[in-house]
């Protein structure tokens, strides 16, 4: 059955994956035509694997964080975002406290933002422990029911919680 006939309503998200070069070419072809949709790229060059996500323009990590910050009455300088790939760029640019993971793609690392440890060295816990003691922490989640990415508060994290979670490998 052709895809056009299988769809009974507009899709929430369309995702492509494949080798880095091919997915870059796809992204480059889609971006100029991206009226009414957003295109984001995630790359793992060392594995020659990339993802291209196509979503509604409001269903991006950056828009979700900006929306939730407004809902909480926060300004961008009160927001910390942690990311490691191109699909995090809009979110990192919004945040007044952008932090990139130690294993982030080189293009993000060259931006001069604060850098934390790698993902396999509890980098998220280290970033929260160093920069966000006592602040409200938001969790970004893919939410197909609502059509993209949503942000929800998971509470306030103290420095001692962060150290304990890092030691136990929870964060």
Description:
The longest helix is centred in the N-terminal third of the chain and has 11 residues, at 20-30. The protein is α/β, with parallel strands linked by helices and 171 residues long. It has seven helices and eight strands; from the N terminus they run αβαββαβαβαβαββα. Helices cover 32% and strands 27% of the residues. α6 (123-131) packs antiparallel against α7 (159-168). The model is unreliable at 161-171 (pLDDT under 50). The strands form three sheets. Strands 1-3-2 form a three-stranded antiparallel β-sheet, covered by helices on one side. It has a three-stranded parallel β-sheet with strand order 4-5-6. It has helices spanning 3-6, 20-30, 61-71, 89-94, 106-109, 123-131, 159-168; strands at residues 13-18, 38-44, 49-55, 80-83, 97-100, 114-115, 136-143, 148-156.
- Helix content, binned percent: 25-40%
* SSE arrangement, N to C: HEHEEHEHEHEHEEH
Low-confidence stretches: 161-171
Strand content: 25-35%
Q: What are the salient characteristics of this protein?
A:
171 residues; alpha/beta; three-stranded antiparallel sheet; three-stranded parallel sheet; 27% strand; globular; disordered C terminus
């Amino acid at each position: 059955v052709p895809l056009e006939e299988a769809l009974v309503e507009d899709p929430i998200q369309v995702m492509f994956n494949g080798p880095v070069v091919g997915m870059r070419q796809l992204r480059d072809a889609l971006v100029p035509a991206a009226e009414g949709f957003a295109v984001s790229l995630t790359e793992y060059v060392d594995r020659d694997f990339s993802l291209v996500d196509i979503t509604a323009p409001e269903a991006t990590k950056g828009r979700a964080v900006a929306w939730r910050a407004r809902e909480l009455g926060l300004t961008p300088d009160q927001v910390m975002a942690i990311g490691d790939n191109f699909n995090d760029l809009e979110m990192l640019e919004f945040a007044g406290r952008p932090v990139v993971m130690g294993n982030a793609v080189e293009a993000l690392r060259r931006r001069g933002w604060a850098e934390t440890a790698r993902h396999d060295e509890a980098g998220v816990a280290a970033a929260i422990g160093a920069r966000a003691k006592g602040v409200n922490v938001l969790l970004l989640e893919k939410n197909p029911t609502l059509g993209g990415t949503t942000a929800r508060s998971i509470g306030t994290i103290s420095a001692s919680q962060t150290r304990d979670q890092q030691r136990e490998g929870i964060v």
